[in-house]
Amino acid sequence: MLEVKEKILMFLAAQQKAESSLGNVVCLIGPPGVGKTSLARSIAQATGRKFACISLGGTSDEADIRGHRSTYVGAYPGKIAKALSIAQTKNPLILFDEIDKMAHSDFRGDPSYALLEALEPSTNNEFVDNYLSEDAPLDLSKIFFVCTANSSYNIPLVLYDRLEIINIRAYTVEEKIQIAKRYLISQFKKKYKLKNEIEFEEEAIRETIDYYTREAGCSRPGLFNALAYTEFGGDVLQIESSFFARKEKDSEFTGNLGEVMKESCRVSLAYIRSNIEKFGIDSDFFANNCIHIHVTEGGIPKDGPSAGVALTTSILSAITKQSIPQSFGATGEISLHGWVGPIGGLKEKAIAAYRNKLKIIFIPKENEKDIDEIPKEVVEKLKIIPVYNYDEI
């Protein structure tokens, strides 16, 4: 969190030094529950601004941003005008929450373009809310805008280029323990009036985090990080594998996977099945069980063969019930004999691994030549292990 705070301070310092708005808007990206909204509130408090939050989850009508014309029955002002009314000031901090969850409607207008008009410095000094009429434009140039998202994938491209992305990583188990001890438990006791009636030992807190909660940061068998390359750059996707008793049912692959990625799932399973003795798997395991493979962020289409190594590792972790540190990740196609094939976008994937606090990544040996393209500061912090065959992992 210290690194995040430093980035925000640098952004605030640059904004204060500039004669006019820099045109960029801070966008905090991270899993649910890592404190994005709380951080926005803290920025408002530190800068002496009123705070207002606008939830964009499910917003599909540009009128939600611009407002409805007053001639319509049931007309109302847009969310920005409402936020200004609540804040009672021209220069609040307005948080656009879940900017990646906006929907698109073909006949109601695209809300992302209405939002762009509000964020763009060249137009936001005369923002027109339809409910208030064109004769009374709103000056939004004094507002400090902050956005939040769980992932960069679904952020509209027209907005993405204008955002100052700050990634907030998931908490480690040790960090979660400290949060529980310093804040959550005291709040729990106060809420249920249990101040002196119950105590939580650290081991109990750790067990709860490891085996009950599902927030990012918990390490359980079957979870492994796959390095992905998207139109926005690199990213880290979590692969989940589990098994269940076979009842005339084939293995399942979910998470909006394309045909090529489903083939990778089948190849990974075939490779493991042909090497069950080497991996210490019971000979009748696959006869009695089916595998379910899921790649998180199911709303985003995924395809390509480069997750083969990660898929294999996730499946083996689930079957052998061995947890893998969340600081590990991998990229590479896998063959039926375990050979690790080359991939594209190594530079972007390595940067994503570094950004997500991974420590060790496995890559195809054939991509070793591409390591020179990776920024020096990333290579210094990230242990990159090239492999020819899965046996080396």
Automatic annotation (TrEMBL):
Family annotation (InterPro entries): AAA+_ATPase, ATPase_AAA_core, Lon_proteolytic, Lon_Prtase, P-loop_NTPase, Peptidase_S16_AS, Ribosomal_Su5_D2-typ_SF, Ribsml_uS5_D2-typ_fold_subgr
Keywords for this protein: Hydrolase, Protease, Serine protease
PROSITE patterns, sorted: LON_PROTEOLYTIC (PS51786), LON_SER (PS01046)
Keyword Zinc: no
GO annotation terms (biological process): protein quality control for misfolded or incompletely synthesized proteins
Highest taxon above the source species: Eukaryota
GO terms of molecular function: ATP binding; ATP hydrolysis activity; ATP-dependent peptidase activity; serine-type endopeptidase activity
Pfam family, one: AAA
Residues the record marks as active site: S306, K349
The keyword Ribosomal protein is annotated on this UniProt entry: no
Domain Lon proteolytic: 218-393
Record-stated family: Belongs to the peptidase S16 family.
Protein name per the record: Lon proteolytic domain-containing protein
Organism: Meloidogyne javanica
